[in-house]
Amino acid sequence: MAMEHKVDPLFRPLTKNTQANVIARPSLSNGQQVIRKLLKNKLAMLGLFIILALVGMAIIGPNLVPYSYSDQSLLTKNQEISAEHWFGTDELGRDMFARTWYGARISLTIGIVAAFIDLVIGVTVGGIAGYMAGRGKRGDRIDTLIMRIIEILYGLPYLLVVILLMVVMEPGMLTIIIALSATGWVGMARLVRGQILQLKNQEFILAAQVLGAKFSRILLKHLIPNTFGVIIVNLTFTIPSAIFAESFLSFLGLGVQAPVASWGTMTNDGLGVILTGDWWRLFFPALMISLTMFAFNVFGDGLQDALDPRLRD
Amino acid sequence: MSNYLVKRILMMFVTLWIIVTLTFALMHAIPGNPFASESDQLPEQILNNLRAKYNLDEPLPVQYILYLKNLLMLDLGPSIKSDSRGVNDMISDGFGASAWLGAQAIGIALLFGISLGIIAALNRNKWLDYVAMALAVLGIAIPSFIMAPLLINFFAIKLPLFPVATWGTWMHTILPSLALAFGPVAIITRYMRASMIEVMNQNYIRTAEAKGIPMFIIVVRHGIRNAILPVVTFLGPLIASLITGTFVVEKIFAIPGIGKYFVDGIFNRDYPVILGTTIFYSAILIFTIFLIDIAYTLIDPRIKLTNKER
Amino acid sequence: MNQHLLAIDNLRVNFKTYGGEVQAVRGVSFYVDKGETVAIVGESGCGKSVTAQAIMGLIPNPPGKIVGGKVVFEGAEISHLPKKELLGIRGTQIGMVFQDPMTALNPTMKVGTQIVEGFVRSHQVSREEARKRAIEMLSLVGIPDPEKRIDQYPHQFSGGMRQRVVIAIALACQPKLVIADEPTTALDVTIQAQILDLLKRLQEEQALSVVIITHDLGVVAEIAHRMVVMYAGMVVETGTVEDVFANPRHPYTWGLMRSLPRLDEGEKQRLIPIEGSPPDLFNPPVGCPFAARCDFAMEICEQQMPVTSEFGRGHQAACWLHDPRAPRIEELVAAGRQGV
Predict the structure, then answer these.
(1) The domain spanning residue B34 has which CATH number?
(2) C155: which chain B residues are within 8 Å (Cβ-Cβ)?
(3) Total number of domains in chain B
(4) Residue C312 scores a pLDDT above 90
(5) Chain centre distance of CA A302
(6) B304 touches chain C (CB under 8 A)
(7) Which CATH number does A38-307 carry?
(8) TM spans, by residue (chain A) (predicted)?
(9) pLDDT 10s digits, C32-60
(10) pTM metric for this prediction
């Protein structure tokens, strides 16, 4: 009866529409977001491309030319780059192209295997230390013991230790890998322990414990997957540092022995002839080392950014 | 404070002792004897004399005790390959060149690294930032043993501005210092940039802005001081990497430093020299880390030496 | 002359992000007179802090930018001043108190130095004088033993003490206006009351003008003379604290009041939250931003921005309900909508 005057249709009350409140914004899963962000990072993608290209060339490169890395020919020594010898030849007439990609096999294998061993030891030791910390007196003691050892090893200059070990051991690929891994796992172990200590106090781990999950299961199913991101990022930095260490050793004459070639030994050889103007001897192996370091580092940076939830857009 | 210092100094010696023991054990774990290469040529009598001189006839524990005893009197022992000169002589010969080279490289690394990091952080995502970061990536990608020949090629051979190698005048020191500092510059730049970006986003920077302080003064007074702290912690690993860097740089530039003696020692399998120089390096490193820890407490008032024990 | 100390006119601030441009402040107007405390109230993300930063010229640019409107301080427009002249206003004319005292102080600088840093710059005083001033300021904000305290570092102060230091910093150059951005949010309840008392005392003693930003209506009732209610980057209601509390005119303000516990309603009362969440400011609605959450929304609310109605003594609200064409609120309540 109060509504006798004509109501403007615009002023008719709305029926409540709860859907209007929902902010429509597509939500992506964690993995999708990481990959999307990584794909958008041009520098990281360039790094990935270079890594794949180097690995590809290490596999097929030596077969692209009709020479092996050790074929000597006094007729063709010290040749500049040409249609015959794409990267030139060395003082024994060996084809630098074949040697460079053969060296890639050696350098990349050493780098990847050493980094992988670091990963296995580091994750195991770090995981155990992190899990044991705070589990009663015995657990704490195990953690403290492991951390003491890690602290001492961490305080030593990595390359100095590797050099000393190489002095003692017979030179060769296997011993280089052993020397590199001897203290190389320490960084990974510290990282994993820190991550696990942080994760441990979170509720889903507590829930798993309450449900009676076994130690190994919690470690494998919960703790390791949740530290996966930092482990992968760390791997993209340990691989180039192992490759660097290998070339450093080879450069000092402690690496692989002739006629086997690695980028480090080839750089060392190239340095010997720098005054004669045979630039290709130094250029190609040095370029490959630098490209490898560059590629892994920018890819690792990109991955780290992509995994960092604070940097999400 | 003094209590902590005493404890800290004691720990320094314990660490050094562990390193000495490990290195000693490692050097004596080598199969065969260090004179293997010469024993074919040397008469048995001379060989025995040599062994006696180096205490090689004694059982290993006795050798170890004797070595420690000499070490306490700061005697790093004789060299096997050089009759007249012991490890001490080598170190005192090489120390001047190595220390000069190292100090100059640290200076360059800190000066350029910190400035580039600050410039990059303040011009985030502008071209100056990209230039600084490109330099940083190059510094990480190009190891010193590649940088050194590059520098020689361009600035000593193509453009004869500097001497190719050896040691003598100040001009001789420039290329090796640059080669040595290039990697550390890159790492410090990255550290400093990240740290500076974080600090400049802190609330206390906004507080200072609200006081009406000009941006330049805020950067200097509030920004750099706080941003430099993480860089200080990096100085330990930096010194370690400089030490290993001198091995190759001194070798490439033929600089008569400790690094060259160390590398020659490796090449000649001169174990007392390797052992002695390793101990010397470790001592230097442990001592610098100790100094850095003290410096850290002076910069950051939140950290007191007394409550640093975990 | 009837000039306001601070007048903000149709201020608009945008932020560029990867997802597009956020319109954080969309045409805000209000004023502050000499010796008065004005509270800006609203939920997080409503643009109240951005408004405060815009007054000081502290909007980080990029990504933020003042895209329209004016900030007039003592008759002069200050929102587009060059950096140099802005420095002359910050600290000396307008002081600012920040939300989180734990992070608002430089951890590596002595407290006394931080307090007088701006004073030393603007007054060119000697070390002795600066020290004297720092001691004076610390005792003004009620910190005991100021002679000793000025040489200490922030980590040696408790949260409440640090907030007192932050207030001392804001007041060190005797500004005419102090902007306090959620000054009590990060503090314990008992400390909150102390800090509010301090602000109130200082405001009265020094005849300060204060803009206090808060989401806490209790704080408003305690300290403010007038209040500005913001929602989704706009002012929805403004007036004296008495008028707005006694007679709120905007459905959002009703919602705020209903979600506040009242002592006079006994134990039976229910706190009623405002359902839903504020609109997406990447793409704000053309009509009233509150329409989607409003119990009284009408067709027009979704289509046109409401006009501002005046209820006397400066009490204003932007809502279509006050249009003569709108049905009366009582009728809507009778029809089963939530009441006041």
Answers:
(1) 1.10.3720.10
(2) 301-302
(3) 1
(4) no
(5) 12
(6) no
(7) 1.10.3720.10
(8) 43-65, 106-133, 145-167, 173-192, 223-245, 279-300
(9) 988 899 999 988 878 888 888 888 888 87
(10) 0.81
